[in-house]
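**User:** My hope is that you can spare some time for a protein that puzzles me. I have put the entry right below:
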Amino acid sequence: MSGSEPTQAASILSRLVPRPPQPPKETVSRAGRNLWLAVPTALVLLAIVGLTLFIRIEAFVALVVLALGIALWEMAGALMARQFAIPLIPLLIGQSIMLVAVWMKGLGVGILIYFITCAVAIVWNARRPMGITDALAGGFALGWIGLIGNFAIAMAAMPDGALVILAFILLPVANDTGGWFAGVLFGRHPIAPSISPKKSWEGFVGSVLAALLIAWLMCGLVLGMAWYWVIAFGLLTPVFATAGDFAESLLKRDLTVKDMGSLFPGHGGMLDRIDSILFCAPVCYLLFALGLGLF
């Protein structure tokens, strides 16, 4: 083997390794995003999700596997800003197997595969300096993205899974949209200025009103759930969606990045788009399972 061949192989491999996002840049827009890019991008993403749901539900499952794989790759790049090199290959393989297993065998099997994947990641990294620390960081990333993502797959497997998923997606979207409008128009009192200065109590009220509207339309009228489940969705979605936004904001602040990636114009990366949706997944799964009499 010539001396140049290992160098070429290393060069090719380096292109597959995620890179840390750039440090935050100042923005003067009150909206916080370029709306000319953000709005069309959001509409296209919603259309893609809608098509996968109503053409064939398995297409939505495949879309979730792809999206969460991209999100995990972005998280790996962001963690590199703090010198964490997580074992991406076993984590990606394990996450994909985990999500497919939830679709085929149920939530319990997926949770078991999560712990197996974490163990494999530790063994994979055992001989590297700081390998165990990197593997534990990988387990955190897999838990944040893949483990919580299991609940979205589990909702798709419910009776009327396409409608359940549509409601699940539209609730955080309504939360974000209502919060954005109310915050831009009326926002005066920040909820936690040190974490996310653009999020206000006025915006939170807008999130609650918008979430209640979608809960009434989708959970009440379309899925036929009782009024108290409608209220539960309308009140809990803003709480958990906001918690997801705050959690990612704290992580990005610690990692000194503005966005986890740059995949979507005006929106940042995949994880930036699904942070609030991920945090809503477990509570929405529980509410749908109870409200539809599946427990």
Remarks:
- The chain has ten helices and no strands.
